[in-house]
Amino acid sequence: MSSPDFESLGIASPVLKAVQQLGYEQPSPIQEQSIPILLAGENLLGVAQTGTGKTAAFALPLLSRIDSKQKTPQILVLTPTRELAIQVAEACQSYARHMKGFHVLPIYGGTDMRGQLRGLQRGAQVIVGTPGRILDHIRRRSLKLNELNGLVLDEADEMLRMGFIDDVETILAETPDTCQRALFSATMPPPIRRVVKKYLGDAQEVSIAAKTKTVERISQRYLMVKGHQKMEALTRILEVEEFDGMIIFVRTKSATVEVAEKLEARGFSAAALNGDLSQSLRERTVNRLKKGQVDIVVATDVAARGLDVERISHVVNYDIPYDNEAYVHRIGRTGRAGREGQAILFVAPKERRLLRSIEQSTRQAIAAMELPTGEQVSDQRVQQFQEKIIQSLEAKDREKFKALLEKLAEDNDISMLDIAASLASQLQEERPLFPNLAPLDSGKRDTGKRDSDKRGRRERGERSSRGERPRKERQRGERKQHDDIDMVTYRMEVGKDHGVMPKDIVGAIANEAGIESQNIGRIKLNDDHSTVDLPEGMPKEIFQHLKNKVRVCQQPMKLSLLGANKPRMRSLDSSAKPKGRSKKPAHKKRAPK
Ligand code: AMP
Known about the structure:
With 593 residues, the chain is an alpha/beta fold. 38% of the residues lie in helices and 16% in strands. It folds into 4 domains: 6-209, Rossmann fold; 212-372, Rossmann fold (3-Layer(aba) Sandwich), CATH 3.40.50; 375-427, no CATH class; 473-590, Alpha-Beta Plaits (2-Layer Sandwich). Helix 14 (324-331) links the parallel strand 12 and strand 13 (341-347). Helix 4 (54-64) crosses helix 5 (82-95). The longest helix is centred in the middle third of the chain and has 18 residues, at 374-391. It starts with 5 loop residues before the first helix and ends in a 20-residue tail after the last strand. The site of adenosine monophosphate (AMP) has 13 residues, from helix 4. Adenosine monophosphate is lined by residues 24, 27-28, 31, 50-56, 251-252.
């Protein structure tokens, strides 16, 4: 299984340098297939979802072909949401960090036009934005596409679901015929196929083959966890899970070192394994793992290729693999020599689709696991503490210490139990026996967008971390307070029958009305319509725009102030319950070092 490196793919040297600095060791499958096609100037249809590395798959080759001296837009990337626009713009910025005079400009609804107009006047070679706002700028002539030579439609199926397809087509029609085009989509519904046929001509199609593999001996679980909480989640798992040897897979070389160092700092015996290490050092690390001199190895896919160590009882996918094949290969590092193996997969809310795709290709359900609670961690530590005390009852100088303590008790008139409690308290200071571990926000019912935490809680009617009570159902027409903003309820003619999800509504309103998504209040989905609480005082033009122009899930939103049409209160809350997945039985605990 040998694959080319970034160098041999032919990306421009400043881009290559950035990629190397970012610690990317090898191209992901979608990158390996897409980069040569885009470098050759051909149109591309990429069937890929978030997490496969698709951003770099189009950004690296397109950036390689940019003329930084020319300040007019050369590449336009359309994204369904402002969050993705920001993410893609940030990625482009990091890949282009060695390109002098390079500018990327994110453009989306919900922010002041003036800043964007200034940015456009200053000049940017790459524009990343949501269709509605991009179209506004094209119409105002503040964005000119006549010199465009690359257009990317990112998450095209999402744009379709959010009702942007007409805008997208209008924009496509504005781009020069000579412009190279790429479209990425996780699914290929007929309207997307139609766009491809009309605007991408004989595009080369790349997709990640989903081969079916069986991995019977390996018990698989996943944990829904946000990126910044992964280390905390990992530490808790390591504390309560009984394991022998473990491989933790991450995406970059730098992450192998970072994660291994953090684990060492938390008292686990861990080492990094990546392609930057010399062959002999890599062999040494693997041997240390074999002999039990180190328990955890944090590795990239490349470095762990073919690794065969019997004592690996666990594989943790700290970063989700790019594709199903890589997943099967990774978890195959455990369950060696007929043993049972455990595989744990961290999934960020936005990576849900990759999880489903892995399940389909392995034809096995991956069970949801719960993050170990503070209580479980505490039980484990108490047990280890007791074991340690019992072991040290054999200590050599015990008689001397007994005499010392007897005198201490007598002189100060304190009980032996008090002395013991005081010593125990001191001993556990670095690793508290009763840690106060807050539950992490698993993001399980997250809408999949970055800034939706607060919303997610509201939709679920849960208390916020500040202990606020959920707002009770209120009567229509009544004003509501939402984080100190007065809210009113609106109705839209899109409901569950049209397949709408809360995130679609949030996306459409955030992008089209310029309302920060955290200011979008409670959403209720009914069969044929929905209601949403929005800040009072919506400007007339925006209301008219939402009423007459905006579509959600291909349905006209037809926003109206809730009045004459009384909503049916039997409607379900918008937050779908997570699918009931079986929980794994508790695992045997292991005494850490
Ligand atoms: P995407 O699918 O574009 O959302 O990318 C998912 C994540 O993978 C991002 O955090 C990227 O920085 C990272 N990534 C993309 N390509 C590579 C690569 N070749 N090696 C390591 N990480 C990568």
